[in-house]
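Recall that a protein's primary structure is simply its ordered list of amino acids. Everything else, from secondary elements to tertiary packing, is in principle encoded there. The following example makes that idea concrete.
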Amino acid sequence: MQTQLKVKLSFFMFLQYFIWGSWYVSMGTYLGKTLMFDGNQIGWAYSALAIGSMISPFIVGLIADRYFASEKILAFLGILGGVLMCVMPKMTTFVSFLPMLILYCLSFAPTLALGNSLSLHHLTNPKRDFPLVKTLSAVGWIAGGVTLSFLNGEQSHIQFYLAGAGSIALGLFSLTLPHTPPKKTGQNVKMSEILGLDALALLKKPSFAIFIACMFLICIPLYFYFVNMGGYVTELGWKFVAAKLTLAQVSDIIFLLLLPLMLSRLGYKKTIGIGILAWATRYFLLAGSVNSVSMQTALVFGGILLHGVCYDFLFIAGQLYVDNEANERIRGASQGLIAFILWGVGNFVGSRLGGISQGAHALKVPQGLITHDWKGIWTYPAWGAVAVLVIFMIFFRDPPKKAPAPVLAGRKEENLELP
């Protein structure tokens, strides 16, 4: 039964990230080159997912935990998201496109938390099996990007139809997932519990407060990559952009497998520090590629392939650090807090500033295909990441190692929750 379950959950993760990978990277190119949106408007479009991520805890906490089974909510949200995505091509002005995209993100963002929660609930050994199941998410992202490039859809509304079809498939497939009834039927759920405010008690620990502050600060330069990368390589004249950018997820799979070894050898401080350093290095490589002739392609691919270190050693290691610091009572709230910082408010601020920077660096006189001062766009987040790294390495302290807990008769192994 567990083998069958893991296959189903893996395919669910594949579909979920196939949808995401088929539009998220290429949307900026479509908006800038086809709909002729400016950088500020593109930044607003990328902040739509942040808005969805900030509001989704209400949806999960007020509805999924109290009234409906998780698999049924996933089915409804998947089909609804598919319909909304298929309407997106009709929205060709900023004032119509942005509200529709926000509505879609409000349907998509809750599926991330619900899918993880359902998986952790049914896997008998989530510490061992959940990372393996989650690996299929990177494969799905790669498949979405490669399929889009095969359809030559990076600058076309094809990407939204592709994501819409994938979303409807996700909704229908969700009905095959194991039944997961609401956990708090008939209970009064406090607003502080829904918002994860109980986890704020961890901020009394100086190192945890520094960690949260640095996670927010690194999100500001971090989202410059997602807002601007597709547009940059398109202006360089690259073809099959979406497929080539999925090399980032190939790197992601490799370094996800290396992460446990790094944490056991280096601890949280050095591992997360390497993740922040990788972001600075990525931006310096991209800035250096702008005026390079012989090494341009190699430098850009170097920045793409750093993604595994950038993402796993920062985001995943950070989530594991939060899990380590939280007790059983506030573990869910703590993971909600870090998700709110990374994908909510941090995403919103970073995406907005990434779009503003793109607009501010638009060239008055285009130089062939180049319409932006890309060296300026990449240099600012590079030095921003360096500043965050300095603050983190000076003030953060590794938590003391915990003594192994005694094994008591009848005690189940503690679950490790990853958003």
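The first strand starts at residue 362 and ends at 367. DSSP finds 16 helices and two strands in the chain.
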